[in-house]
Specification:
- The chain is an alpha+beta fold.
- 33% of the residues lie in helices and 9% in strands.
- It contains six helices and four strands.
- The strands form two sheets. It has a two-stranded antiparallel ribbon. Strands 3-4 form a two-stranded antiparallel ribbon.
């Protein structure tokens, strides 16, 4: 395994599929229609026809994605009509926990994917919202250069690039987000 300044370099680890929460999340969420349905439900659009209209998804595609999101525990169906049976879709706690992810994805899209944002979010202070990540422990900014990948719960199996530790006992693995 390669090292750089005494740190394990993720890119130099033995080849193999890495276990990863990002990959697991993408198995559930990682395509357009699922994320757009979550966006609309988060906006307060709960009925199938309106979700389809706002996303542009075909009825079959949307029905499939909503079933997948429901089975994954991201949304729940609530019946609002018995004859004929009709349902609304609402975010579960797992779905509501996607809120910061959706805000960050929107912010990235506003900067890199569109010429002009379609919507602007204002914080209750009246200012435009800018998502900023901070460490809950120290309040410092979260940047790729300030992250270290270590195994969870003290596991020492070499997964995720475990290195040693510095004089303060902090892990010294190189961030998985560091460029070239």
């Amino acid at each position: 395994m390669g090292e750089h300044n005494g740190q394990v370099v993720m890119a130099d680890q033995p080849l193999g599929v890495r276990p990863c929460s990002v990959a697991a999340a993408l198995d559930i969420l990682g395509e357009r229609w699922s994320l757009l349905a979550i966006r609309e439900i988060g906006y307060g659009v709960h009925r199938f026809a309106r979700i389809a209209a706002y996303t542009g998804a075909s009825r079959d595609m949307l029905a499939d994605r909503l079933r997948k999101l429901e089975s994954a525990g991201i949304i729940e169906r609530r019946q609002y009509s018995e004859h004929p049976p009709r349902f609304e879709y609402h975010l579960t706690q797992a779905g509501r926990d996607l809120f910061p992810v959706m805000l960050a994805l929107r912010q990235w899209g506003d900067k890199w994917a569109v010429d002009q944002p379609a919507v602007e979010f204002l914080h209750d202070c009246g200012q435009p919202l800018k998502v900023d990540l901070t460490c809950q422990h120290c309040g410092g900014p979260v940047t790729r250069d300030r992250l270290v990948a270590v195994p969870p719960n003290g596991r020492d199996d070499g997964v995720d690039g475990v290195g040693g530790s510095d004089s303060n006992g902090r892990p010294t693995a190189v961030s998985p987000f560091r460029s070239g």
